[in-house]
Amino acid sequence: MVEDRTHTGRQRPPARYETDRGPQYLTATPAHDGYGRFRAFGPGGPRVLRGPGVRRPLRGVRHRPGLLEVGVEYTRINRYEQATEALERAARFADDEGVEQEAWVNKGAAHAELEEYDAAVGAYREALDVDDDSEHAATAHTNLAFALWESGRSEQALEHAERAVEVDERFAQAWYNRGFFLLERGLAEDAVDAFDNAIRLGMRRVTVFEEKARALEETGEYDEAEEVADRAKELREQAEQDLVDEHGR
Questions:
Q1: Is 31 in contact with 73 (CB distance < 8 Å)?
Q2: Closest by alpha carbon to 107, among 129, 132, 125?
């Protein structure tokens, strides 16, 4: 018997959202302390994640071997083809599993920038073959979910989004991607819970509030959806004003 999910309350048309939809993936860029800092990519271009729980230094490697450092630097300056070559060499010649896994994850992200999603999938699977339960495994899983989604394999994408939060339950970006894929599958209530976890862990992007508003609309919580959509609008306007102020200096 099919469950009747018809809402009997006040009906409203869906809100209009300005941000392109989609999950996100992570790559690493050098930081001054010798660590890397993950950046989120997805619809609308790269966005640096800020806030507790979402700034993820590469804790395992304080001093990078040369090939890995070169590959990450190529990624930072948007030379992605050179990055994939350097990072594959870094992975092949690494004598440390943490370095090898980090190289594969970054190689996958470089392929994703080139929209070479099959190659990205392969790189993330290589990373997970190294260790499926390490500090970098959650990133590999959530990035693999992104690449699978881009390749039209959304069911597999949800599996890896689920695995990402199992490996690291404090990984806000993984919770966001899990919520996105759940919503795509029509599981709006579960999606709301996932977006709430991402927000609690410090994710304050426009995208997470817009996706939560969509999920609330799907469950018939129109008043709350409107409040969350208003919050997304405020964040977008603030970001636009910050950009204007920055360029005005």
A1: no
A2: 125
Q: Which of 51, 185, 123 is nearest to 177 (CA)?
A: 185
List the domain range (segments joined by +) for residue 223: 25-244
Q: How many domains does the chain fold into?
A: 1
Tens digits of residue pLDDT in 204-220: 899 999 999 999 999 99
CB 40 within 8 A of CB 53: no
Amino acid 65 reads P
Report helix angle 97-113 to 117-130, nearest 10.
170
E runs forming strands in 13-124 = 25-30, 36-41, 47-48
Q: Provide the 3-class DSSP secondary structure of residue 139.
A: helix
Specify the pLDDT at position 245.
79
Other C-beta atoms closer than 10 Å to the C-beta of 150 total 20
Contact between 62 and 35 under an 8 Å Cβ cutoff? The reply is yes
CATH number for the domain that contains residue 46: 1.25.40.10
Q: How confident is the model at residue 24 (pLDDT cuts 50, 70, 90)?
A: low
Q: Which residues contact 108 (CB under 8 A, 6 or more apart)?
A: 119, 120, 121, 122, 123, 124, 127, 140, 143, 144, 147
The answer to whether position 229 is within a domain reads yes
CA distances from 29 to 69, 106, 126, 159 (A): 9, 9, 20, 27
**Count of CB atoms situated within 10 Å of the CB of 75:** 26
**Is the residue at 249 inside a domain?**
no
Residue 219 CB-density burial (10 A; 0-12 exposed, 13-18 middle, 19+ buried): middle
Q: How far apart are CA 79 and CA 27, in angstroms?
A: 14
**What's the pTM?**
0.75
For 232, the token pair is 């997304």
